[in-house]
Each structure stands twice: as structure tokens, then as C-alpha cells.
Amino acid sequence: MDGMLALYIFMLAAFTGYEVISRVPVILHTPLMSGSNFVHGVVLVGGMIALGQAETPLEQAIGFVAVLLGAANAAGGYVVTERMLAMFKSKEKN
């Protein structure tokens, strides 16, 4: 993969992600995040594929950043989901 093409894809993905997330109301962010954990997994797999096919240091850096951010997104999504589900559990009375 050409280094400039990888850079363009990375920049387009970053811009698109920012635009999509910035337009989500705060009250909907948690349910949407918990419902879209599979998307974070796809991003992680795509980053691993890009990192595996990297030939230049620039491509390796972009692939590493993609894997790192994808893993952080996936882990954060599951943590938020767990906290959201804990809010709906009934509390025991002493």
C-alpha cells in the first residue's frame, strides 16, 4: 500500500469519526457506544491488517496507531456498557 494512500485513508477515517461522534447528543452517546462495540472490533481488525501489510515506517506507525486506538475504543465501549447495565440492577435492601 502506498504510504500517501494510507495517510489519506487515516485522515479520512479520523475526520469522519470526529464528525459523526460530535453530532451525537450527550444523552444518546452511551447507548450508541454500547450498541456499536462491534464497529470498534472491525476497526481493530482493519488496523491489524494494515499493520501486517505495512512496508514503510510511516505505514507501520499509522497501523500501530490504528490498532492502539481501536483497542482502546473497544475496551472503553465494554467498560461503558458494563457501567450502564449496572445502573439498571436492583439494589439489595439491608
TrEMBL record:
It comes from the Bacteria. GO terms for biological process: NADPH regeneration. Residues 7-89 form the NAD(P) transhydrogenase alpha subunit C-terminal domain. It catalyses: NAD(+) + NADPH + H(+)(in) = NADH + NADP(+) + H(+)(out). Its EC number is 7.1.1.1. One of its GO terms (molecular function) is proton-translocating NAD(P)+ transhydrogenase activity. Coiled coil: none annotated. The chain crosses the membrane at residues 6-26, 38-54, 60-81. It is found in: Cell inner membrane. One of its GO terms (cellular component) is plasma membrane. Its main location: membrane. The keyword Heme does not apply. It is a multi-pass membrane protein. Keywords: Cell inner membrane, Cell membrane, Membrane, NAD, NADP, Translocase, Transmembrane, Transmembrane helix. The transhydrogenation between NADH and NADP is coupled to respiration and ATP hydrolysis and functions as a proton pump across the membrane. PANTHER family: NAD(P) TRANSHYDROGENASE (PTHR10160), PROTON-TRANSLOCATING NAD(P)(+) TRANSHYDROGENASE (PTHR10160:SF19). This is proton-translocating NAD(P)(+) transhydrogenase. It comes from Zoogloea ramigera.
